[in-house]
Amino acid sequence: MEVFKAFDWLDDIRDKDDDINYFKTAYRNEDIASQLVIPTTTIQHLFAE
Q1: Is the Cα dihedral 35, 38, 39, 41 positive or negative?
Q2: Torsion angle defined by CA atoms of residues 21, 27, 32 and 35, in that order, rounded to the nearest 10 degrees
């Protein structure tokens, strides 16, 4: 099912003992945030007009 693909990345932040790997979590969050900069500024610009 397509909905569950959105959560596939959750397995990437776990280590072999199924504990949360905070380094991988921080890296993942930084990657996601960096991809939101351009869409966010574009939306702000469109609403300002």
Answers
A1: positive
A2: -170
Q: Is 20 helix (H, G, I), strand (E, B) or coil?
A: strand
Mean pLDDT value across residues 6-27:
76
Site of tokens 């199924």: 18
**Rounded to 10 degrees, what is the CA torsion of 1, 21, 35, 39?**
70
Per-residue pLDDT, 31: 84
Residue pLDDT, tens place only, 18-42: 788 888 888 888 888 888 888 899 9
Both tokens of 19, joined, read: 């504990």
Residue 42 makes CB contacts below 8 A (sequence gap 6+) with none
